[in-house]
């Protein structure tokens, strides 16, 4: 298996006084992956990100960055991390070049390599034409690009981006998402975001944390399969008996709707073909048949709300 693990998080736990903010969280990240990290406010997302970047000590657990134990060798491990906080750490009174040179020095890039490192970072983030401009005079989108450039200037194995498109206009959001996808080819990316469509647009894997625990972890394709239709809306000129619809193969539940319409809930077997055949045979005069898909927002709410309800049972096993 060629999957190269750049981040390995094992049984990460953190308490604030008596409150468990992160509870036995484990996952990994490989080169070429963009991991979307989702969670409602207070779910433990920020605490997890801070522990992965070495800004917060875990109560228990282990974090390896590119094979280096973050707790045992923090300086070496942090050299393999590029981090863009939600509020980019920019010096607005500096030019882009001055700031990136300063960041290169902070990351201990040898003096002879600084100019080439700056040039590569600017090229990858589309900053080639603004090197001499003051950061404070740039648009919010370009300031975000500068923030990403400082995160990648030392060619880290792992790039962690916290809400990188907040406050941007639609065109800027599109550009930053394209940049993230491009960076994902050479690095392992962890993307923390509240913007659910951003996950579908940029990520290869998705994790959802709630009340300190991971409640979902799968590929984006796996997530989208959960969004597939699990219900049909059917409309008839002559409303059939609900019991007759309930007998159709695959139908789990029939929900009556206004105007001779029903919602047919099903599990694995789509009843559309059987419904059409019966409609012809029974002269129900079917005139509408629409698959109904769940949105990512609905799945997110189902996972976080159901977990919140079950959390009071005291079951914290993973």
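^ structure tokens above, recovered residues below v
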């Amino acid at each position: 298996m060629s999957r190269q693990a750049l981040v390995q998080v094992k049984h990460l736990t953190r308490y604030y006084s008596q409150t468990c903010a992160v509870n036995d969280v484990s996952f990994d990240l490989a080169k070429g992956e963009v991991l979307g990290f989702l969670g409602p406010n207070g779910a433990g997302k920020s605490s997890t990100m801070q522990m992965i970047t070495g800004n917060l000590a875990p109560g228990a657990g282990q974090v390896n960055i590119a094979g280096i134990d973050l707790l045992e060798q923090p300086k070496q491990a942090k050299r393999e991390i590029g981090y863009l906080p939600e509020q980019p750490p920019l010096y607005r009174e500096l030019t882009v070049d001055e700031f990136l040179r300063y960041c290169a020095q902070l990351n201990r890039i040898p003096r002879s390599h600084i100019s080439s490192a700056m040039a590569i970072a600017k090229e990858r983030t589309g900053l080639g034409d603004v090197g001499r401009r003051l950061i404070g005079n740039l648009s919010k989108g370009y300031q975000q690009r500068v923030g990403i450039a400082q995160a990648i200037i030392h060619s880290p194995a792992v790039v962690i981006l916290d809400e990188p498109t907040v406050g941007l206009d639609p065109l800027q959001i599109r550009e930053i998402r394209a940049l993230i996808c491009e960076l994902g080819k050479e690095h392992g990316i962890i993307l923390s975001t509240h913007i659910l469509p951003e996950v579908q647009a940029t990520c290869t894997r998705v994790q959802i944390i709630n009340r300190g625990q991971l409640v979902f972890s799968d590929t984006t394709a796996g997530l989208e399969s959960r969004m597939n239709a699990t219900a049909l809306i059917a409309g008839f000129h002559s409303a059939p008996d609900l019991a007759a619809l309930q007998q159709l193969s695959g139908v789990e539940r029939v929900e009556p709707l206004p105007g001779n319409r029903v919602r047919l809930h099903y599990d694995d077997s789509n009843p559309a073909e059987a419904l059409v055949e019966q409609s012809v045979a029974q002269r129900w005069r079917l005139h509408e048949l629409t698959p109904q898909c769940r949105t990512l927002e609905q799945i997110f709410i189902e996972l976080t709300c159901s977990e919140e309800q079950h959390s009071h049972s005291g079951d914290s096993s993973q």
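The two ends are 25 Å apart (CA to CA).
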